[in-house]
Amino acid sequence: MSKIVRAIDVGFGNTKFVVGHTPQEVKCGSFPSLAYVSAKDSAQRTDGQRRRTVSIPIDKLFYEVGPDVHLAADTFRGTQLHDRYIETPEYLALARGALSYMRLSTIDLLVVGLPVASFQARKAQLERLMTGVHDVGAGKTVEVRKAVAVAQPQGALVHFTAAYGKQKTIAQEQSLIIDPGSRTFDWLLSRGMRLVSKVSSSVNRGMSDVLKTIAQEISSDIGRPYSDLPAIDTALRTGKPLLIYQKPYDLTPILPTAHAVARGAVSSMMEWIAEDYSIQNVILVGGGAFMFKDAVKAAFPKHKIHVIKDPMFANVKGFQIAGANLLSAEQADASSEES
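Above: the chain's sequence. Below: its structure in token form.
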């Protein structure tokens, strides 16, 4: 029986995961990185509601996660936007929720990711957390036999290499992977497939900062606090009007402040990138790619910017490919030793 590889990318905005992998396609799923806690299993509700969530038991509490998690929400939207995110029960609930949606009982190799700035410090800790037997609720468990953590943009580099057919040339090239996520703006410089750690890092200046900046401008305009960040996000991504008090609200006058946030993040990165003329590939990924694209293009006017299709899933797709390659190499080594 062939061994099973899967990947999870628990971001501050969305949790992405792989549900299937063929030579032609890496199939993914996602849900918001929100976990709502209660003393009772949400699956035992008596209100007749059915929603696409799972209830993950951790330390005698239940964390509801999944695509319809907003239906479980109260007026407080609890998030874990801090550097010790992976130490929280919410993080574990999101990861185990992703495991539940994979519908597997055993995973031979699980690949997970971390922001660049915290990668070295927390890699071993995350690998230990994700290895072992996980209770995913409803009497089910998932055994992860081995876990490997990588820097999140490294996944995007692997995905880019496969998608653009650059396996034969990437070893001689320098690449800059730019990953604006919900909380962090990550960048990774690589030579071939290897991370250049001294010029790769993160700043806490992601899409959540863009959305909060816009919300503050709206609050000032309407004369009361406005906090519906998901509605702003949807309006920006779809071009559909934001509705406030049942009327379309024009975001156009506010957008320059949002673009200023993006430029600030890119400027922080450029302090680290001294020799931009040596970079062959500038790769833009992440859920915030659409909002940061203009700032990246302005910073690299002489480069072609590769904006990956479905940028939110670029990291997790690369995790999956890297995991499959790693497992194949290990199996080849084992066969060689036996012969």
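The chain has three domains: 5-151+315-338, 154-206+265-311, 207-256.
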